[in-house]
Structures are given as structure tokens and as C-alpha cells.
Design goal:
6-stranded mixed β-sheet, 2 domains, globular, glycerone kinase activity (chains A, B), 8 helices, kinase (chains A, B), Rossmann fold, transferase (chains A, B), homodimer
Chain lengths: 332, 332
């Protein structure tokens, strides 16, 4: 295993140590909980707290999106495992200024369970936690069962819009509604070309045969809807766009934001090659692209592959998406 | 080969197509040369033009650093090959406002040759091109032969400081001096864990045996100074820091910027694990870290590995480094 690790069981611990050392100007480790990252200036007086949480191994998600006009605190789980209820609770406590906290997280069993528990625990301490559950992954359930779908890279748009709204001084309900609207406007799909390996396991926990690809794959290798022969990037990009747009049902004249994220080990040039086909397919439907994001925004360790997220925009979503942020995930 | 490509011989062409579609709000393709990326607002009246150029396969370098307060134009080469003299020339022409152009590029034979030729061609058209040649890669030549060293990720700091200086309205000579000072203040080292593959070749053009690492490896797989058994991240990070700092000869009390870049297929969490050891080693020498950048800033296709760049800072370098930029490489 050709990796920069120490003890494979301590990957998260070591990642967090290096993370807070790198970005001490933006974030800090909670003094109460070594699995909670907190924005340096949190809690902000009079502001709704915005938190998320999820398993590690998706860096820069989730912790890299902590910062100005974005997330105030992040609960950090072990690799591909939900953070504990206590970590979600401590994240909320770390950024609660009295106006309540919104937890914007992904639809996974462990996260659902632990967030629910955290809400109860927080209520006992007089902290109100509202939630939005991301379910943008089109292939993870049928259109009429959207509540069963997983949350993937659309979460970044949810955090951006929710975080920007909170920074404007909106109420808890307003922030929740905005984040809900943001994720409701997102559809995503993943295509996997090669699996990832948990360092402590040492071998992939699923397989993708050479010259094939898995369409609809999840962030943890959850099976997709089909295994196909690996096609050209133009064909793959078109297929990804069609899956997302067909589910989205956007009308001609719609405006969208596009996010193409590598899954960890796919070089950036290939993501741009995909984007050529994706943006052409979107344009062919008479849909306008407001902004395109291409890079490793939400990964899965060293998985080879990419995700596409398309978010439908109205004036408010566009305005919130365009708010400048300062966070470790995108530093220059 | 599990990749998102169309014709493997058209990777650069297809990357550029997807790149300009993604970032049309920041960049455009030159109308005169399909291998030149130009900042949307270039040329800026009264501003020195700032250009670079280099082989493709290092995305987001070089083209991703085109934008506000950064590069005005970039000459794009084929994979791991220098851009042509004409492309360097056309990049210069695209951003020349009459105050001259500075070309900030890396020390490779092809680039040196083509930039020299571009300077002559530009002179005939009345455009002055000044140059700074990056040579921050410590292991590529001995300390007393720094002019033989290759340029690697230190180029990003050179672009940032040079670009910010030019945006302030400095003269050609002032911009050149600033960029020269920036790269003179940088030292870098690379460690490779697994090789990369040119899509048109289909197999790696060099090898790194499992359970070993190549210390001092170049961005194109140029041999390092030694092959060692793969150590823990703590040991590798310490070794990288020592190589860079020993060559740097910084005194206690010095202030630095740190850039840890993945080489393409190394997950972000591992870069943070490396940073834990790197930042500790820097601190142990009584050196203060002003800012740390961790991510895929300068890659080599799908190579597994990382580079460390340490830049010594004075007040001016710090100020220029902190200037906000807007470019495709770091969009959120």
C-alpha cells in the first residue's frame, strides 16, 4: 500500500492533527471534543450556527468547508463512518450563539441516527437544532423515493447557500428553508473506475473490473445501477449529464451550477475532459450554466472516478452561491 | 487504463475545451493560438503582463492559475512537453499593454529554449519580455549549482507574488525582481510512491517498487536522489522538511509559507498527515509558519506522492502572498 500513513488505525487522528496545524488561521479543534472542527470565530453573536458531519475519507469534505460564510463546525467520523451523536452535539454547542443551529448532513443511516440523538441531547441543554438531509444522489433510489437517496457532492452547494444565508443574519427557519431549497435543487451521479482502499484494511472492499465502469456508484463504493464497458470520456460525460438532467426535469431556459468532483485519484485534466461533454449536453437542452466547479471537492480516499452535480438556480440561490468564502478546501 | 479520456493523443486538446467551458467567467482561449489561455480581462491597461507556460499533465498548474492578481496568460504544452516558442510569444502578445511582459517559468531544457526564442520574436514586434526561471527543486542539483535545478511547486509562490506585484502597477523590472526574490526564497522536494502513466503510452514510463519510495523525484518522474523503503508518514514528512530546510539555511525566527501538494493520486488526508510532521519539524527549528497550503496544487497526472515547498518570507513577500486572487485552480 503506497501511502503516507502512520498507524493505519490512526488515519483520522493524524489527519486532524495536520489539518488544524495547516489552517489555524481559519479553524481550531474543539477543546471539548477531538472529533469536532470549529471555525476560529465561532460562535458568532446573533448568527445561526451551521454545522455538518460525516465520515472521514472524503476530504476536503467535510471539515475543509469550515470557515467564513460557510460551516461553523464539523463533526468528524472515522473513515467512512458516521460521527458520534456526541460529536454532532458538541459541534452544535461550539457554534450556538442562542439563535439555534442548523445541521446540514447527508442521508446515511448512521448519520441520521446520530443526528437525531444529538437533537434530543441538545434540546435538554436548550439548543434547538434544525436539520436538512441531503439526498441528491440520483441513482441511489427511484425518483418517487427521493427520501431514500444518499447525499453526495450536492451537500457542498447546500452548505454554501445555507452558510451564506446564516451569515446574512437570517433566522434558524430561514436558514433551514434555504438549505433545503438548495439541496432540493441538486441532482448528482457518480461513476467509478477503480475502487478505494481503507488503510487499515489494505485491500479494496469492492471491485471494478478493468475496462469497465460502475455507473451510479456511491461515495463508499455502494453499488451503482449498472456496470458497463468503460466508454470514452465524451460518452461518459454525456451519460452522466443525461442521468442527472432526466431526473431533474429542468425546462429550457433554466440556469444551473455544475460541480464535477474527482473521487480522489483521478487527475484534474480528465475532469475537464468530462466537463467538455457535460457542458455540451447541458447547453444542448437549452440550459444555461451560471458557474462550473471542477476539482477534488468531495472525494472517497483513492477511488478513481468522478461525480457530477447539477443545481438549478433562481436569483436567490445564485446570489448565495456567489458569496465569497474563506475555508481550507479552496485556499490560495 | 481506467481513465476518462477520448483519443489519448488528444488529451490536451480535450482538457482545454473543457477548461475554457468551465471557467469562461475568468479565462478564454486565445483567438490566435489554441494553446494559449488568457485571462478574460487581459491585457490590462498600464499593467505589466505576467505569463508562464509549461507541459500539460500538471493541472491545475499551469493554466489554472490564470486570473485576477495572478497570471494573465499561459502557454500550454503537450503532456510533459514544453509549449512552442510561438505559444510563449502569443501568450505575451495577448497580455501586453505596452509595459512589457514577464515570463515566470520552470527550468527545463525545452522551456528555456522556447522562451529564449519567444523573447527574440517578441523583440521584433516591440514587446519586451523579462524572465524569471524557477529552480526550487532541491534534489535536482547541488546547492552550488542552483541554476541547474528544476522548477516545481515553488512556481506557484513565484506567480502569486509576481502577479500581485504587477496588479499593483509595478514596472517590468520591479515585477521581475519581485518574482525572482520569490523563487529565490523557495525550496522544494518531491517524494514519489507510484509512477504516472501518459494516456497515449498506456503504461508507466518509470517504476517505483511497492514498499519503496523515491526521494527527490521530479514532476516527470526524473530520478530522485535515493530509493528508500517506504517509511511512516511521520518519518517521510520529517525527511522532506529536513531536505528543504537544510538546503534553505533559515535562521531561528524566520517566517515561512508552506505548500504541500499532492502529485495527483494521493488522497488529501495523507497530505494532512504529512503536514503534521512537516509543521512540527519546522516549528522545532524555531521557524514560524505564516500560512500553509495543502492540496493538489501542482500535480503529475496520476502519480502517487507529494511535494513540499517552503518559502522564506519578509514583509513584502507576505503581503503579496496574502493578496486575494480569483482563478480556476481554487474556486469556491
Amino acid at each position: 500500500m503506497q501511502r503516507f500513513v502512520n498507524d493505519p488505525d490512526e488515519v483520522v487522528e493524524d489527519t486532524l492533527k495536520g489539518f488544524v496545524k495547516a489552517h489555524a488561521d481559519i479553524v481550531r479543534l474543539s477543546e471539548e471534543n477531538s472529533r469536532v472542527i470549529v471555525a476560529k470565530d465561532a460562535p458568532v453573536d446573533g448568527k445561526v450556527g451551521v454545522i455538518t458531519g460525516g465520515g472521514s475519507g472524503h476530504e476536503p469534505a467535510f471539515l475543509g468547508y469550515t470557515g467564513q460564510n460557510l460551516l461553523d463546525a464539523v463533526a468528524v467520523g472515522e473513515l467512512f463512518s458516521s460521527p458520534t451523536a456526541k460529536s454532532f452535539l458538541d459541534a452544535a454547542k461550539a457554534c450556538n450563539s442562542g439563535k439555534g443551529v442548523v445541521c446540514l448532513y447527508g442521508n446515511y443511516a448512521g448519520d441520521n441516527m446520530n443526528v437525531k440523538m444529538a437533537i434530543k441531547l441538545a434540546a435538554k441543554e436548550g439548543i434547538e437544532i434544525a436539520t436538512v438531509v441531503a439526498n441528491d444522489d440520483v441513482c441511489s433510489a427511484a425518483p418517487d423515493e427521493r427520501e431514500k437517496r444518499r447525499g453526495v457532492a450536492g451537500e457542498i452547494f447546500m452548505w454554501k447557500c445555507g452558510g451564506a444565508k446564516a451569515a446574512e443574519g437570517a433566522s434558524l427557519e430561514e436558514v433551514r428553508e434555504t438549505a433545503q431549497k438548495a439541496i432540493d435543487s441538486c441532482r448528482s451521479v457518480g461513476v467509478g473506475l477503480a475502487p478505494c482502499t481503507l488503510p487499515a484494511v489494505g485491500h479494496p472492499n469492492f471491485s471494478i473490473e478493468p475496462d469497465t465502469m460502475e455507473v451510479g456508484i456511491g461515495h463508499h463504493g455502494e453499488p451503482g445501477v449498472r456496470v458497463e464497458p468503460l466508454k470514452t470520456a465524451a460518452e461518459v460525460g454525456k451519460e452522466m449529464a443525461n442521468i442527472v438532467l432526466d431526473d431533474h426535469g429542468l425546462e429550457e431556459g433554466a440556469e444551473v451550477a455544475v460541480l464535477i468532483s474527482g473521487l480522489g485519484a483521478t487527475p484534474l485534466d480528465e475532469l475537464y475532459i468530462l466537463n467538455d461533454a457535460i457542458s455540451e449536453e447541458i447547453a444542448a437542452r437549452g440550459i444555461t450554466i451560471h458557474k462550473t466547479y471542477v476539482g477534488n471537492y468531495f472525494t472517497s480516499l483513492d477511488m478513481v472516478g468522478a461525480t457530477l452535480t447539477v443545481m438549478a438556480l433562481d436569483d436567490e440561490m445564485k446570489r448565495l452561491l456567489d458569496v465569497d468564502v474563506r475555508c481550507p478546501a479552496r485556499l490560495l
